[in-house]
Amino acid sequence: MSKLDPEIGWYYDKGGEAARLTESSFLEEARTRRIIARRLGDGPKAIADIGAGPGAYSVWLAGLGHEVHVLDPVERHVREAQEAADAAGVRLSSCHEGRAENLPYLDAEMDAALLLGPLYHLTRREDRVAALREARRVVRPDGPVFAAAISRYASAMDGFFRDYVREETFAASMQRTLRDGQHRNPDRHDGFFTTAYFHKADELRYELRDAGFRDVELLAIEGPFTSIPDLN
Q1: Are 171 and 165 spatial neighbours (Cβ–Cβ below 8 Å)?
Q2: pLDDT for the residue 224
Q3: How far, in Å, CA of 113 to CA of 92, rounded?
Q4: pLDDT value at position 142?
Q5: How many CB atoms lie within 10 A of CB 189?
Q6: Which of 51, 48, 146, 55 lies closest to 97 in space, CA to CA?
Q7: 138 in the same domain as 42
Q8: Is residue 16 part of a domain?
Q9: Which of 98, 147, 179, 189 has the fewest CB atoms within 10 Å, measured from its CB?
Q10: What integer pLDDT is reported at residue 228 of this predicted model?
């Protein structure tokens, strides 16, 4: 199991993730909520929000009456998730630091799991497959696992829409990302994201298959629209 990359820790310790979905990625949040709500079914569920960040989906789900367990490797996010729940007047069943590759839950303990952040921050394939296997382990056999990945072409779309391609550091990073999926931000530029792996769709299918998933549905969330400046 890999440790949290210091670059990822630096990126999220700056803050800002708590407001991202409402201020700059509203389409991502609206579409993701719609997908989750359609597939959860009726009645309260026990849900693991793995890599929950500052708890945007955790608080929403807890507000709907679900039993939500928050796990994230970033201490700031764990604190912000609990603060967000307190501010909203909802209860999180648990809220702890932890890694997606080694979950603290029992086999089939959950009715569903969210894995909306870990896959693109685990840059080694074996770690991504391990995280998927763990999510599958802790969810009952017929329960859904919602996993998110970033497209191989996301940085290229950002680069052209936002004119980052004129910057030498970004252009070099973009070329590497297109070549092997490994995205880096060596100069810590505020707009260039952080250490990540960007998938091709077939790669994600194979990783899900190798983790034991058989009933797999791949859905687009944002397309190119999130890269358009001032769309919000």
Answers
A1: yes
A2: 66
A3: 15
A4: 94
A5: 14
A6: 51
A7: yes
A8: yes
A9: 179
A10: 58
DSSP annotation of 195 reads S
The Cβ of residue 102 has, within 10 Å, a number of other Cβ atoms equal to 10
Residue 128 forms part of a structural domain: yes
Give 130-193 as a DSSP string: HHHHHHHHHB-TT--EEE---BTTHHHHHHHHTTGGGSHHHHHHHHHHHHHSEE--TT--TTS-
Shared domain check, 21 and 68: yes
> Would you say residue 126 has pLDDT above 80?
yes
Task: Calculate ∠ Cα 138-30-190, nearest 5°.
Answer: 90
- Residue 222: its pLDDT value, please? 82
Query: What's the mean pLDDT when you consider all of the chain?
Result: 93
Among residues 7, 3, 2, the alpha carbon closest in space to that of 196 is found at 7
Same domain, yes or no, for 139 and 158?
A: no
Cβ partners under 8 Å of residue 66, min gap 6:
40, 44, 45, 46, 47
At 101 the pLDDT is 98
Q: At what angle do helices 168-180 and 154-161 cross, to 10 degrees?
A: 150
Examine residue 31 and state whether it is found in any structural domain, yes or no: yes
Instruction: Quote the tokens at residue 164.
Output: 């980052």
What mean pLDDT do residues 147-171 have?
Answer: 91
Same domain for 123 and 157, yes or no, is: no
